[in-house]
Amino acid sequence: MNILWLGHSGFRIEIGTAVLLIDPWLTGNPLFPAERRAEAVAGVTHILLTHGHGDHTGDAVAIAKEAGVKIAGVYDLVGYLAATEGVEITGFNKGGTIDCNGAKVTMVNACHSSSTAGANGPVAVGSETGFMIAGEGHVIYVSGDTDIMADMDWMGDYHKPDVGILAAGGHFTMDMARAAYAAKRYFNFKTVIPCHYRTFPLLEQSAEVLAAGLPGVSVIEPQVLQPITL
User: Fold this and answer.
1) Which CATH superfamily hosts domain 2-229?
2) 0.85 cut: is pTM over it?
3) Which pLDDT band holds residue 118 (cuts at 50, 70, 90)?
C-alpha cells in the first residue's frame, strides 16, 4: 500500500488494485506542483469526496471526466455534481460501505460543514463525512475536516483503524494538540499522517505537537507525492 499526499487534504492511496484519489484539490493548491498533475492522477480508479468545500472538491469533476471514473461520496453532494456537471457517481451515506476494486470504503461521521459555491452564494450539499478504508491488512481512518467528536469512541472500537489521516491544521479543523488528544483517547493507531496544514499561514505549519502527544506512534509529516509505504 502506498499513501501519497497531494497537499492540503488531498491523497492518492494505492491499495490492492485500486487507486483512490481523496479530496483532489490540485489546481490553485499552493502546495501542489502543477507540472506533476499527470503523475498524481495516473491510473485513478475512484474519486472520494469527504464534503463539498472547494479546497476538497477542486479537481474532482475534471479528473472524473478525463479518466472516466465515478465520484463517490455522500449522496447529496455527488448527486448535485451529477446534476450540474454531468459526472458519473456513486452516492452513499454514513454507515454505508462501497467496494473499490476490493478496498472496502465505509462512510463515517465528521463534525464540520459542507457547501459548494452556487450562483447566489453557498449551496448546502449534504453533511460532512470521513472514511474507513480497509484493504491489504490495514484500516485507514480518513477523518475529513472535523473536530474531536464523541463518535470517535465507537468508530475506533468498531473499525479498529491502524492508520490515521487526520485533519489537524487548526482554525477550520482540529489543531495538532486536539488531534493528538483524539488519537490517544479514541484510537490505537500505529501510523498517523496529518493533513489540512501548511497550506496557508493561517494553518499550523508543523506536526511537532502531534508527534510529541503520541509517543510510540509513527507520526509521519508527509511530503507531496512522496510515497508512504505500509
Assistant:
1) Ribonuclease Z/Hydroxyacylglutathione hydrolase-like (3.60.15.10)
2) yes
3) confident
